[in-house]
Amino acid sequence: MTATPHQGARRSGRWFATSDLNGFIHRVALRAEGHGAAIADGRPVIGVSSAWSELVNCNVHFRAITAAVKRGVAAAGGLALEFPTISLGENLMKPTAMLFRNLMAMDVEETIRANPMDAVVLIGGCDKTVPAQLMGAASVDLPTIVLGGGPAQAAVYNGRRLGSGTDLWEYVAEHRAGRMSDEQWAGLEAAAGPSAGHCTEMGTASTMATLMEALGMALPGSAAVPALDARRIAVAEETGRRAVELAREGLQPSSILTTAAFDNAIATLTAIGGSTNAVIHLLAIAGRVGVDLTLDRFDQVARRVPLLVNVRPAGQHLYEDLFRAGGAPAVMAEILPLLDGEAMTVTGKTVAENLEGTPKPDRQIIAALDDPLGPPGGIAVVRGSLAPDGAVLKRSAASAELLRHRGPAVVFDGIDDLLSRIDDPDLPVTAESVLVLRGAGPIGGPGMPEWGMLPIPSKLLREGVRDMVRVSDARMSGTGFGTVVLHVAPESAAGGPLALVRDGDPVLLDTENGVLDLDVGPSELALRRADLIPTPPPYRRGYGMLFLEHVLQADRGCDFDVLLALPGERAETDPPGLLEGWLAGW
Ligand code: FES
Q: 126 alpha carbon to ligand 1 midpoint, in Å?
């Protein structure tokens, strides 16, 4: 087989359309997989990045989805080449999947860049897999389309449909308070995981899937289709088809992931009552495409968008109910006056064009913009002497009476200290206390684990206390709730003032005015700082050391400094010296 002239115009043609020994070897490599005819007619090559793994229960159904994507690619005249990368599961991966988000992003990025692809389909599901894939692909900037895995079948326990985490946290509190027996607890365990698919409420996975549509990177209506619903297979096929068209059209992420797209994503995040983790992931994705997104922009946009979506933890229903109510398009159509309708999307049409003709939704699930479920500002940014670079609070999942609160700190140094003392009957804590956890940020965690929803001390639980102000440099599961201030930056391990707080110090949270203050004088804080004893780094080699050396703080998305887009430069789509040299002498 020799090179095909028409193939040369495509990126993959640089591998397959040359008449030299390089081209010969590349074509033979695909012939060995049985793709001779596909290479001969020069069809677009579509990389299919699958986050399938038996270590990730949320993604374990991806085989069928990937097969459907490949069918769609073939039907549209492309050649699909599936490739694995590492995958990240929230439940099994320790110390936290977030530690490895950037590693997966690097894996995806370099696999795309190093191989003959003209466009990419990203298939992710569990929390970190979706942002990791898009971060990597955006850095290469080949035409890209995202496909989520869909929410799992809802668990039912004692006749109640459960959110994967939201309801679990309630049962955890009941069990700790002695109001749920061990036998009942075992019954819950047996019922809690009925199928593959991601968490069933508006946790991080549902949030990120929805935001992929809001950013314009996924087909409208694709995010919320349940994992086991046949329509997920159909939308997978459609995604494969569209990927081939994208390869032909050359529509790149850099034309979609604009400032307007991120504003649209923040507005949608607020309307759906989405996860605080999305703040970090959107900051990181923006950093890959050179969009100057700041924490304050979240506050600015969120303040004009009310809560519309009645899905747990901010509401009552589940993500599959949002699917039946019209999914992300129905939400976006409702807030279209607050969106930039001219933003481009992977359909090749604008947001407004995609939303034309969207029917009115079920108002039980999606409230009207003029009759919302909750006030604007669901995601709030606070900053002050305790968080000079900012912190985040999910106001839509907090207690209204605690949004302005001043109370004495009860401080925990890391998770072990927290777990060993939180239920101590002698812990000097009242409902007015502010629980403070440090040593849980990107460096201190390490990896910024989801420890931010500190448990309510048992003795207060028994008194009926259900919420307290909690402050940490950790993250919180998207399924979590409560008056929980997260992502304090700089974190304590990076020298932030969080490291200086002592028991009894007054802490002031004023959400409306965006304030988080430690009411201790500067001279006292200087004395405390002089007394700080540095903790040894948890890693001295390997990826862990790379992470500690390069991770940015939460207000910048926790990406690695060396992975940010270079100012004023477009992405490096191809490796330097591609295809040149290694067999030049033949
Ligand atoms: Fe995977 Fe929640 S554990 S999405």
A: 5
